[in-house]
Amino acid sequence: MATVDNIVDWFKTGNEKSQALIDLKWNLTTVGDYILLQNDKIPFMLYINFESDKNTVHILVRTGIETATIENQPRLTIYRTLLILNQRVELVKFMLDSINEEVVAREDLTMDTLTRDDLNAALNTLITAFYLMVQALKLQDEFNEQIIERTYMMIKDMLQQGKTRDEIKKYLKETIGLGDEEAEELISQVLDSDKVPKNMYQ
Asked: Among 89, 93, 138, 191, which is disulfide-ready with 177 (CB 3.0 to 4.6 Å)?
C-alpha cells in the first residue's frame, strides 16, 4: 500500500536525465488541498489531491479554459466534446472543476495497490489523454509544443523498456483511445525522425 509520504518521495527523488515521468525531479508546492508538480521538461503543472477517507489520489491537468461565463453555444460544444471523450478513454475523466467550471483531465488512483511503476503509467496515460482533449477542443496552438515534447519522451521511455512499435500502438489505441490512423501517425512522427516533430497535428 502506498502512503502520501511514499508518493511525495517518489516525485522528489528523481533526476533530470530520465525519460520516465515519475523519475524526473519535480518541484512540489502545496496550495490549499493540492500539491502542484513542476518540472522544466513539462511546461505545464500537474495537480495532486489526496482523499484519505477513500484512500484515493487524484491527478489533474488543467487547460485554463473556464466555461462558467462563456456563451451558451460554445459552452454546449465543449460539454458535448467532453462527454464524447469520456466514452473513448476509460481511465481518464474529462470534466469541469471549481466554481469557474474549468476544463480539466483527471485520473483517479487507488492507493491500496499503487506502485511507483503504476503511478508512472498513470501519468503517461493522463498526459496522452490530455493530447486527445487538445485535439478535440482545437487547442493545438496553445498546447502543441508541450504535448509533443511529453509524448516524445513517453514513447522513448517505452522503447527503453523494450516495447515494440506494435505494442506502443496498441497502448495508444486501447489505453488512450486514439484511433488506428491517429496512433500510427503519432508513432511515425516521433519514432521515424531524429528529433521531435514541429507539429504532430498536421
From this structure: 89
